[in-house]
């Protein structure tokens, strides 16, 4: 794990119950059959006062447990912010800021900070695993991550100081200083089109930007779709052409907290290049005042 110092995700069916048809001994000779006997249905008793009380107690316990859980998340967030500082990346071309932990000067201190972040990550995953991703908050979360990974826009850091520090650009997608003058230039690795594979969604709100253009492939077959399309349109003519895309997932989301995993596969001729990845990360975010803000980069690679 790389903490970035560079801190570079019965039914009961009401009705008649019929007893089996019987033939009595006297009627047996003539073949007469006794009529089915209807078993009377007892009226359903209303829920007792004791049962209602037990249900209310269980609901109160559940509510208290969820509040306790949210309190734990909030307390761990406070611990992270108290330990954290900033590494400003400069003012030119708005490179963004990086959350660092300047007081973690020993292995023990670093492990203590890592443990807090990992506990927070684990609790969000435990509560959010398996939850529906169709809500408005989760779709806004996806839009935030896509815009950030594509280099179109960036989230702000979650902080109590009220400063609007932007996260740094991911995957070298940010602008770079112009060596010949005071201006800024697009990143040399910036693509005209950025492709995303998003298994957990069937659609999304696309970032509105003239460049780059964002394309997304959804569902379980999304990854195979992007690879097939690339081979048909490009790879079949140029065996040295490289396919690079961004896979978003898994995502765990619970009550304004989220853990999001991002990987950036890269391959040539149908085979992975190097480690098969251009890097990736696991992000921990929190929804604040209608926007998703970055709390921590749990781990990163590549």
For the largest beta-sheet, the strand count, sense and barrel status come to:
7 strands, mixed
| Average residue-wise pLDDT | 81
Low-pLDDT stretches are: 1-33
Helical residue percent?
25-40%
User: What is the number of beta strands?
Assistant: 13
What would you say about this model in short?
The chain is of the alpha+beta class. It has helices at residues 49-83, 107-128, 136-150, 222-235; strands at residues 17-18, 38-39, 85-88, 97-100, 176-177, 184-185, 193-198, 213-218, 242-244, 246-254, 257-268, 271-288, 291-301.
Protein architecture, described:
With 302 residues, this protein is α+β, with helices and mostly antiparallel strands. Helix content is 28%, strand content 27%. It contains four helices and 13 strands. The model is unreliable at 1-33 (pLDDT under 50). The protein is globular, with a radius of gyration of 29 Å. The chain has helices at 49-83, 107-128, 136-150, 222-235, and strands spanning 17-18, 38-39, 85-88, 97-100, 176-177, 184-185, 193-198, 213-218, 242-244, 246-254, 257-268, 271-288, 291-301.
